[in-house]
Design brief:
Layout: E1 3-9, E2 18-26, E3 31-35, H1 40-43, H2 45-55, E4 64-70, H3 82-92, E5 104-106, E6 109-110, E7 116-117, H4 122-131, E8 135-139, H5 143-146, E9 154-157, H6 160-167, H7 198-210, E10 214-217, H8 224-230, H9 240-253, E11 264-265, H10 273-277, E12 278-279, E13 284-285, H11 287-290, E14 295-298, H12 306-310, H13 313-318, E15 320-324, E16 329-333, E17 337-342, H14 361-368, H15 373-377, E18 381-384, H16 390-394, H17 402-419, H18 429-435, H19 440-453, H20 457-473, H21 481-489
Parallel strand pairs: 3-4, 5-8, 8-9, 10-17, 10-18, 11-14, 14-17
Antiparallel strand pairs: 1-2, 2-4, 6-7, 12-13, 15-16
Helix pairs in contact: 2-3, 7-17, 7-20, 19-21, 20-21
Length: about 500
């Protein structure tokens, strides 16, 4: 046989489109040509494949080899095409039979001695392979990652020789079996570590219950970073589908991820807009997408470049980020909770007339103006974090643990799921009219607050969402004036 077809997959954003590797062996001067928009790593595969085939005990054909990667208009990148190319050459040259190969998809990078090396983006490939009802043959080091999927036959191989023996019916590769990998969250930092700070703790509980964003403001050393780092410990655990979505994002980004755990991302304030949003010639996920279904913590918020902060506006509203390039457009999920922390002034001590502050009124104003009004308008809870007294610090009594707070959060979360099927942060203005029912006193209070605080339409709806969450925590179907006044108290300190 002089022709062979082997199936594999590429990685495009979070998608894994099917690629057909077509190999044709013909008469002519010995050559190897790869067509179908291969990038540098794919073009270099010819040398890796030649050495791997010879070192695995097979013959490399001394004829004209043409390899087509279809579809031809899809750019092919990475070294994951090494294995399907090598197997296609061996089938086309008649060294391996082509029976059963159509049921498999193959991925893997080849070393010169024929060993298989791990690749990135395996989980996205595995998900697409499962939908196509194919079997997946991949490097052994990627088996655990792909094995998280149920009802997918995964065959891990250590070398090209082992793959060939499998298709020659000499020594079959055993199908990989895996247990559920949902992690326990007992390793997360506990909320009991925080002394005092009852109001910020309460705000953190509300944020966890409804998926709201928070801005902490206070002098250095008051526990703003500590509070933010404890949020994942009181969030509801991810279900299997959500865990797979997050895991596939980290797989594409080639970053470690503990399966089942909500992400917590804390980029440095020198991060660029590309680092936050994602991008590149072949767009990769940025910090916003890596925080999907988790927490994005921005410490020292005014120290971030203003242009960098402005890119957060659209994802906070739409829960996704669209990256446009000349060739194509990619959409990455970005449903994250924004937790931000800032000092009140450049020196940090302009809080309740602290005598240590040496900043002028002009410099304080300039510092706070680094954060634009539209961005502040999109943050639900604005919280002052005051300095702790010596009495609070010396108090040996342990604060309420994450487990206790999490029980209340889970209860409020189940109310939301039973009522509308998702958390309160995702409620549209129309849905707010249906689900955020105000008592007569609350309606009067909100009308008065809108006039006094000059609330925008966006701020109005965000206050209602927070009030709805507070009512859920109190197990109340009706939003009373108590719930609404608490929601308004979290809005007024900074920005209407």
């Amino acid at each position: 046989m002089s022709f062979a077809k082997v199936y594999t997959r590429g990685v495009l954003g979070l998608q894994a489109p099917l690629i057909e590797v077509e190999v044709h062996v013909s008469q002519g001067l010995p050559s190897l040509t790869i067509v179908g928009l291969p990038e540098a790593a794919v073009r270099e595969s010819k040398d890796r494949v030649r050495s791997a085939i010879i070192n695995s005990g097979f013959q490399f054909p001394t004829k004209r080899l043409t390899i087509n990667l279809a579809p031809a208009d899809l750019p092919k990148d990475g070294s994951r095409l090494d294995l399907p190319i090598a197997l296609g050459i061996l089938i086309a040259s008649g060294q391996i039979p082509d029976q059963h190969i159509a049921n498999y998809e193959l991925i893997g990078e080849l070393a010169l001695d024929g060993q298989l090396r791990a690749i990135s983006g395996v989980l996205s490939i595995a998900l697409a392979c499962k939908k196509a009802n194919h079997q997946l043959l991949l490097p052994y080091d990627n088996a655990q990652e792909a094995g998280q999927l149920e009802q997918l036959a995964v065959y891990p191989a250590c070398s090209l020789k082992q793959v060939c023996q499998h298709f020659l019916d000499q020594q079959h590769i055993d199908c990989y079996t895996s247990q559920s990998r949902l992690s326990q969250e007992n390793s997360l930092p506990d909320l009991a570590d925080i002394k005092g700070q009852l109001r910020p703790r309460r705000a953190l509980e509300i944020a966890a219950a409804g998926g709201h964003s928070i801005l902490f403001r206070g002098p250095p050393g008051t526990g703003k970073t500590l509070l933010a780092s404890r949020l994942p410990s009181i969030l509801p655990q991810l279900n299997q589908d959500d865990s797979l979505t997050v895991a596939s994002i980290y797989s594409v980004a080639n970053q470690p991820y503990q399966f089942g755990q909500r992400p917590f991302r804390a980029p440095h304030h020198t991060a660029s807009a590309i680092a936050l949003v994602g991008g590149g010639s072949q767009p990769k996920p940025g910090e916003i997408t890596l925080a999907h279904l988790g927490v994005l913590f921005l410490d020292e918020l005014p120290e971030f470049d203003r242009k960098v902060l402005e890119v957060l506006r659209q994802p906070l509203e739409s829960q996704e980020i669209v990256i446009s390039r000349a060739a194509r457009q990619m959409t990455f999920p970005a449903q994250f909770q924004l937790i931000a922390a800032m000092n009140p002034c450049p020196c940090g001590y302009a809080f309740n007339q602290d005598s240590r502050c040496q900043c002028s009124a002009e410099s304080i104003k300039r510092y706070q103006n680094r954060i634009s009004g539209p961005l502040l308008d999109r943050i639900d809870l604005h919280i002052d974090v005051p300095p702790l007294s010596a009495q609070d610090l010396q108090n040996s009594e342990r604060s309420e643990s994450s487990a206790c707070v999490r029980q209340r959060v889970l209860q409020a979360h189940s109310f939301q799921l039973n009522r509308q099927g998702f958390n309160n942060q995702l409620l549209s203005p129309q849905q707010l009219e249906d689900y955020a029912v105000l008592s007569p006193d609350s309606q009067k209070m909100l009308a008065m607050a809108q006039q006094r605080l000059n609330l925008s339409a966006r701020a109005y709806h965000r206050v209602l969402r927070v009030a709805r969450t507070i009512a859920d925590l109190a197990q109340s179907e009706l939003i009373t004036s108590v719930h609404l006044s608490e929601a308004l108290s979290y809005r007024s300190p900074f920005q209407s």
